[in-house]
């Protein structure tokens, strides 16, 4: 059973959330007294408790979501909390709903014409997906040996990529010089370090062991190793050619998938550490300048909300925006196909550009 001091921390966490008037997280909303009482003494086979699920959102009251799954079993064992969070984040995906079969949209790429052929609005386009390697739990339950083994497995797989467009080099974070690292982060290629949401979730242990980035020469195909998820597979380039970006992602994903079996849940699709990424795991985004329609932040947010688009800052989630450039992406990842997730971004951004052109 769960030790008394851990159960006490869960109760204190609940009290802290209830007392925090400014906290708007999905955790606060859905962690009711009943959920606490029913779940505080449960633990997964790997020993994770409700505290592991909630501690990031308890520590960071400005969380939008606030929960993480320490291992796959947590999604089922703590479904009293995860299900309502998932339903609210993913546009009403119910506990009885099932993620559709994977459809990356190979056959539909031709429908994705360049969103900004004159290069007036879109700085760059990126599509990423997350994957978990079968046989390993998520960050909080990994030990140092796990990290090393996962990294060496991936290094072998990367070394075997011979496709002329995609082949590249793996750069471990261990030993990377500060200047190189800073530049890779500033240029939007590498994950940032010391994310406080992940840290509080116990996801940054043994850092930088087992973490790193693979990329091709042009930095248009990249794979993050052991940041938030085991793998983040990324395709990106300047401009608004979503079709090209998606085509490259599919090619790269298939190459990695052929060598590494990934964890998939019968109902929740591809498994990820954060419930916001379940299902397709796809975040398709543009960095876009639409100064007229984004002049008033609250109106811009309303327009984006209506089209199921999420706005982030120029340096990703929880960052501020600079020079009027916004990161606009699909919000929902679960309960639709991969192609539909990309299409949500595509159709929404197309509309944003039309609105910008029409604005006086
Ligand atoms: P993720 O997309 O993996 O969930 P973040 O929101 O933190 O995580 O973004 C990771 C990095 O990717 C950040 O540096 C962000 O600026 C960059 N990025 C996201 N979308 C684009 C884009 N369309 N063009 C260029 N860089 C992007
Ligand atoms: C938060 O709750 O703000 C962080 N734990 C990050 C949640 C992921 N957010 C998202 O929209 N993908």
Automatic annotation (TrEMBL):
Taxonomic source organism: Caenorhabditis angaria
Domain Phosphagen kinase N-terminal, residue spans: 9-91
Domain of life of the organism encoding this protein: Eukaryota
InterPro entries for the chain: ATP-guanido_PTrfase (IPR000749), ATP-guanido_PTrfase_AS (IPR022415), ATP-guanido_PTrfase_cat (IPR022414), ATP-guanido_PTrfase_N (IPR022413), ATP-guanido_PTrfase_N_sf (IPR036802), Gln_synth/guanido_kin_cat_dom (IPR014746)
Principal EC category: transferase
Boundaries of every Phosphagen kinase C-terminal domain copy: 121-359
Record family assignment: Belongs to the ATP:guanido phosphotransferase family.
EC number, as in UniProt: 2.7.3.3
Pfam family, one: ATP-gua_Ptrans
Alphabetical keyword list: ATP-binding, Kinase, Nucleotide-binding, Transferase
Keyword Nucleotide-binding part of the UniProt annotation: yes
Name of the protein described by the UniProt record: arginine kinase
GO CC, alphabetical: extracellular space
